[in-house]
Design brief:
homodimer, mainly alpha, Arc Repressor Mutant, subunit A, 6 helices, 2 strands, DNA-binding
Chain lengths: ~140, ~140
DNA sequence: ATGAAAGTGTAGCCGTGGCTACACTTGCTG
DNA sequence: CAGCAAGTGTAGCCACGGCTACACTTTCAT
């Protein structure tokens, strides 16, 4: 596409719309992945730990956890920590794999490790399956 | 970093924080780029056109334009279209270059064109200067 | 066994970015 | 030149994701 070609209106609108909705699931993905990590590493996931890791207040974390529950991704009983449902664990695993893949591709392209980790944190939520597949192929053929 | 190593807390919190703040500028970037395209292509940028391209209501577009004005990126007089300030044009140009670079890298990695355009729409807002530089180098050495 | 510290939960505020509904310009057309 | 269609702007709603402040459990040490 030449520089000053605008894509057809509906195409462009669809793209922006998808990017917007990807954004709305990004937060759930981050929480799911982090909770899975904490469960694996510490045996439990407490709201305060989650909040500290994400750099938000515990109240913010608790509200997000409520949303995870609403979406059927997590369960939690008052004062008893947070757990993931099967759906939540599947999501976390998908996110974990995708995150590593994005970081590995960035590093393979010559991005310094710390920048790769940082950028992957934002990029990962916008990587489609098609792109993910291409990333896999690229890393294999290295 | 081994799979189940968690990054140190402050590091991880900082990463998430940066990813969050990148998000807040993403919308401005999209508007600035689109307005620049419309000005270049049609000679004028009207709120309704902007809204159609982005797939949002005209009211939403107008609110975003108000924010662009607040941030010193755009100017607009009632019923007279939207224009970019110097800062706005510089931003738009930076965004345009970055967008192309991201798309080109994705395509070079084997991502199908349409998916590359779609994913770039979300990814571009999270690409640091270091990553951008690596992308450039990668494309040159192709 | 109790009391303080740590953690948890709730309430209520803010700004953002969506939306619809309604009012008002503008500008073209007949 | 009158009137209507298209475009513009404003108001007010919602959900989200931040926050602080405050209340309530739990837990652990004395």
């Amino acid at each position: 596409m030449a520089p000053s070609d605008l894509p057809a209106e509906p195409t462009q609108a669809r793209r922006f719309g998808k990017a917007r909705s990807a954004q709305s699931t990004a937060l759930l993905e981050d929480y799911a992945e982090l909770i899975a990590d904490l469960l694996a590493g510490e045996g439990e996931a407490r709201p305060t730990d989650i909040a500290r890791r994400l750099g938000v207040s515990h109240a913010t974390a608790i509200k997000a956890i409520a949303r995870l529950k609403r979406e059927g991704l997590a369960t939690a009983r008052p004062y008893r920590g947070v757990f993931l449902t099967d759906a939540g664990m599947r999501l976390a695993e998908r996110v974990r794999v995708r995150h590593r893949l994005v970081v590995d591709v960035l590093v393979a392209l010559g991005v310094p490790a710390e920048a790769a980790e940082q950028d992957a944190e934002g990029i990962e939520h916008h990587v489609s399956d098609a792109t993910l597949a291409a990333f896999s192929r690229f890393l294999e053929h290295l």
